[in-house]
Structure formats: structure tokens, C-alpha cells
């Protein structure tokens, strides 16, 4: 006699169907789990044994075989505990096996029978919805699972409550969907003193989704400007919110089942390792670049990051995804991020001030900036020099423009782009490429002449040329211009990277 229970294996943001087959046959007492289980899955035998004992049941003194099919797909995680336990209850005749066929099951068991939360419940719920199945999950994650439409969710606190539901003696209540995660409070652009050029670059970056690098002395407001960026970005669309929430779910960071609507803002420390930034580890998990998907990845003190770690960002910045290769599997996570970085011009930070600069200037700046590779810098659309804040800026009574006013202009520019790229996978100007970019961002005749001249004098690469077009298109959108003119190209060129210090 064999019981069949549906569950899933997670490969990145992909949920693969797994069938848990439980068989009890005559023979010496044994409990064997096969089908490429990792250590956590193998240890489920003891957790299941303890959970059944907690509700007054014992395993039959026979040979128990659990097969996780397909057998060539690696199985990782503790969410196989509950399907294995339900399969055993089915084969023992305690739960109707036909009833189990209607559900997909995930959950970790405690020795006292409680069902603990596991990563990836939202993905499992979406997968169950696609297959026309209900979902059995931990009670603490019912509000997360219910976001998948057209699905029956059984969110049980413990094994006894789940058993009572299947027996019909105490039906489980239907969980309520979690609330929308509110945007965390952040600084307002009205707090930024002076820095008109940097404020303008930040607005352009927000309007077109462009990458931005700010360079300037300590205390000039670079980190404050970066922290203001989420406040002028538009909220995620419902589809984007689901994408971001799926990443948070598979990483175990979806708090109380709340769907994330604000764009992520991740600011890892410069000591972060490569797996921490791009993902990986023994069990491949999303890194900071994926946790910032459709949001902002802020790297402060950019040259202080390990060079290999920074160069690992080159692929996701170009493709919008990160592929992690392992001997037994290849995992892909989304990584469509807006990179915002800040740096000092040199180690001491006072390169342009003779009174404060160190004795090695300007050689220290050459060595410091050489930590950043040219290909990485070429992927950054906007390069801005942030000057030191003057006393006049600090005491000026003129109020700076608040984030709400800037956000309105950004939203208007984003609305233009949404209409322009409707029907294509492109969301913003920063993603436009090929014929789509040529058709929408080709400048007028004076603009083309200026761009051709600049491409020669600045030695723009093909990638640099494309990024100038994208920025010019965004500047035109902010101005409400249908076409790209010479003035838009000129401003876009002003944000290109200057030649390195000699």
C-alpha cells in the first residue's frame, strides 16, 4: 500500500512538483528516505517520529520507505516533514488517501507536533493554484499563502488540529490575507542642503531607473541623498509586488504574510562576501542583489568592497538576473536592481582641498579609484561629483524642494514610459535596448551631431553610447518632450564618467 502526497522543491524562484510516496511493507523495522534528500530531509525521520508520538501514535513495526519523486531532483529543506507525516497517516489508514490527493503540503514539524514556518510558502501556494490544488501550510503563514487566488488554504498550528480537520470534528478557519507592508519612513529631500546637481541626478535616476555613482568628500550628503531615493520612487505595481514578495518568501523574510508594496532598499556593508551580495552558499539562497529586486541596492564606500565581489555584479546589472552554478543544480534569481553607490575621491576623502588633503595626493586618488574596474563603471549611467556643503548652504533660509514634489515629476515620467513600453517586458528607460531604444530615443539632427562628436572625444564604448541615449530619453520625459533634443543629450553627456586622474 502506497500513499501519495504532493509537495514542492525550490530552485531559485521556481517551484518544482515533488511527489512524496510512502510505503509500509513487512520486514525488519526501518525508516528510509530516498530521492536525493539533504541532511535536513534525512533528519525528518526523527521529527516525524516525535510528532506522531506527541499525538499518541507510533510508527508501525515494519519497513517504511519514503520516496521523493523525481529521484534525480535534489531535495533541500525541512518543509518535507509535514507531507511525509501525512503520507504515513494516509498509509496507516488514519487519513483518507483520496483526500490527501487534493492538497499540496509544506511545513516543518516539531517534536511536540507543532507545525513550524518554512521559507517559500507563497511560491508553493502559487504552484498549488496553477495545479488546481489546495495548500496545507503552517498556521503562521496562512496569511501569506492566501494571497494566491482561487486556492483553499488549510493553515494548521499543529498536527492534531490538522488531523481533527480531516476527520471533520474541528474544521480549520480560513486564514485572512496579510496586510500590505507599509513603506518604512525615510528622510525627505527637503533635508538636503544645497547639492542642486546631485539632487537633479537623483531625480533623473529615479525617473528612468538608472544606476548612479556619487563621489565627494565625507559629510557632503551622499548617504542622505541615497536614503532619499525610495521616497521619490513610485510604489510597486501589483505584479511587481508579487515578484518582490516571492523573493522575500523564498528567503524567509516575508513578515507576517504581508505583501510588499514599497520598493526594497538594501544597503549591505562593504565587508559583505560574494555569496552575501549575489547569493549562493551550500543551499543557494538569494543575496542582496536579489533581495533588492525592483528596488535600490545602495553600496556605500564603493572602493572598500572586494574587487571580485563588485565585479560579480556586472552580469546582474546587465541582464537583470543572477545565475548560481552548483555541481548538482543551476539556480537563477531575479536581480533587476537600481544600483546607487557612493565613494570618497581618495582614501582621506579630501582630494580637492589642499588644506585637508594627505601628502600622497593626487597619487592616493589614482590608487583608490583603481580598485573599481572600468567595465563596472561603464555600467553606471550617472556619475556625479558631490561638493562639500558650504556654510552658506547650511544657513540658507530658502527651503529645499520636498520629496513629494519631486516624486510627482518622477511619477509623471514613469507614466510616460509605461505607455511607451506597453506590451513589452521593458519597464523603464534604463531597460530599453536595441530597436526599441533606437525608435524611441534617437535624438534630432543637432542632438545626433553632438552625440557623435562626444562619442569620439570621450571614447564612448557601445554600452556607454547606449546609456547616454537612455539617460537623454529620461531627461526628455521629465521635460515632457516627445522627442530627444540637443539639450537633453548635452545634459546626459555631463553625467558620463570623467577620465581617470593621472
TrEMBL record:
Q: Where is the signal peptide?
A: none
Pfam families annotated for this entry?
ChlI (PF13541), Mg_chelatase (PF01078), Mg_chelatase_C (PF13335)
Describe the family membership recorded for this protein in Swiss-Prot or TrEMBL.
Belongs to the Mg-chelatase subunits D/I family. ComM subfamily.
In this chain the AAA+ ATPase domain maps to 208-390
- Segments of this protein annotated with the region Disordered: 424-444
UniProt xrefs under InterPro entries:
AAA+_ATPase (IPR003593), CHLI-like (IPR045006), Mg_chelat-rel (IPR004482), Mg_chelat-rel_C (IPR025158), Mg_chelatse_chII-like_cat_dom (IPR000523), P-loop_NTPase (IPR027417), Ribosomal_Su5_D2-typ_SF (IPR020568), Ribsml_uS5_D2-typ_fold_subgr (IPR014721)
Q: Coiled-coil annotation: which residues?
A: none
Q: Which organism is it from?
A: Sphingomonas naphthae
- Would you tell me the protein name for this molecule? YifB family Mg chelatase-like AAA ATPase
Amino acid at each position: 500500500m502506497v500513499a501519495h502526497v504532493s509537495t514542492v522543491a525550490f530552485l531559485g524562484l521556481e517551484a518544482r512538483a515533488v511527489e512524496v510516496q510512502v510505503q509500509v511493507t513487512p520486514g525488519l523495522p526501518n525508516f528510509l528516505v530516498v530521492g536525493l534528500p539533504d541532511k535536513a530531509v534525512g533528519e525528518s525521520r526523527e521529527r516525524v517520529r516525535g510528532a506522531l508520538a506527541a499525538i499518541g501514535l507510533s510508527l508501525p513495526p515494519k519497513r517504511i520507505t519514503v520516496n521523493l519523486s523525481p529521484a534525480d531532483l535534489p531535495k533541500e529543506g525541512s518543509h518535507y516533514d509535514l507531507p511525509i507525516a501525512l503520507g504515513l497517516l494516509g498509509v496507516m489508514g488514519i487519513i483518507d488517501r483520496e483526500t490527501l490527493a487534493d492538497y499540496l503540503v509544506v511545513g516543518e514539524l516539531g517534536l511536540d507536533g507543532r507545525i513550524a514556518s518554512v521559507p517559500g510558502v507563497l511560491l508553493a501556494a502559487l504552484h498549488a493554484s496553477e495545479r488546481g490544488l489546495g495548500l496545507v501550510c503552517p498556521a503562521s503563514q496562512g496569511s501569506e499563502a492566501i494571497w494566491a487566488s482561487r486556492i483553499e488554504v488549510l493553515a494548521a498550528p499543529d498536527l492534531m488540529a490538522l488531523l481533527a480537520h480531516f476527520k471533520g470534528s474541528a474544521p480549520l478557519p480560513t486564514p485572512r490575507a496579510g496586510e500590505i507592508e507599509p513603506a518604512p519612513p525615510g528622510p525627505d529631500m527637503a533635508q538636503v542642503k544645497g547639492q542642486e546637481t546631485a539632487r537633479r541626478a537623483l531625480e533623473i535616476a529615479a525617473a528612468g531607473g538608472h544606476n548612479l555613482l556619487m563621489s565627494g568628500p565625507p559629510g557632503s550628503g551622499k548617504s542622505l541623498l541615497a536614503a532619499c531615493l525610495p521616497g521619490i520612487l513610485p510604489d510597486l505595481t501589483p505584479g511587481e509586488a508579487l515578484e518582490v514578495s516571492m523573493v522575500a518568501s523564498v528567503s524567509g523574510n516575508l513578515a507576517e504574510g504581508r505583501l510588499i508594496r514599497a520598493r526594497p532598499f538594501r544597503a549591505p556593508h562593504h565587508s559583505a562576501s560574494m555569496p552575501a551580495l549575489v547569493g549562493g552558499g551550500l543551499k543557494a539562497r538569494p543575496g542582496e542583489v536579489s533581495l533588492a529586486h525592483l528596488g535600490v541596492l545602495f553600496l556605500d564606500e564603493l572602493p572598500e568592497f572586494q574587487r571580485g565581489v563588485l565585479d560579480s555584479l556586472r552580469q546582474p546589472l546587465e541582464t537583470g538576473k543572477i545565475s548560481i552554478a552548483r555541481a548538482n543544480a543551476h539556480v537563477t534569481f531575479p536581480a533587476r536592481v537600481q544600483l546607487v553607490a557612493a565613494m570618497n575621491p581618495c582614501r582621506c576623502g579630501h582630494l580637492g582641498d589642499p588644506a585637508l588633503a594627505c601628502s600622497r595626493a593626487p597619487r592616493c586618488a589614482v590608487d583608490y579609484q583603481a580598485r573599481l574596474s572600468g567595465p563596472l563603471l561603464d555600467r553606471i549611467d550617472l556619475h556625479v561629483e558631490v561638493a562639500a556643503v558650504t556654510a552658506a548652504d547650511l544657513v540658507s533660509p530658502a527651503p529645499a524642494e520636498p520629496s513629494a514634489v519631486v516624486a510627482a515629476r518622477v511619477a509623471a515620467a514613469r507614466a510616460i514610459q509605461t505607455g511607451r513600453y506597453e506590451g513589452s517586458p521593458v519597464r523603464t528607460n534604463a531597460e530599453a535596448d536595441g530597436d526599441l531604444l533606437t525608435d524611441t530615443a534617437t535624438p534630432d539632427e543637432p542632438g545626433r551631431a553632438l552625440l557623435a562628436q562626444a562619442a569620439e572625444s570621450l571614447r564612448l564604448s557601445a554600452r556607454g553610447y547606449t546609456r547616454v541615449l537612455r539617460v537623454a530619453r529620461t531627461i526628455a520625459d521629465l521635460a515632457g518632450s516627445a522627442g530627444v533634443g540637443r539639450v537633453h543629450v548635452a545634459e546626459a553627456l555631463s553625467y558620463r564618467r570623467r577620465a581617470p586622474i593621472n
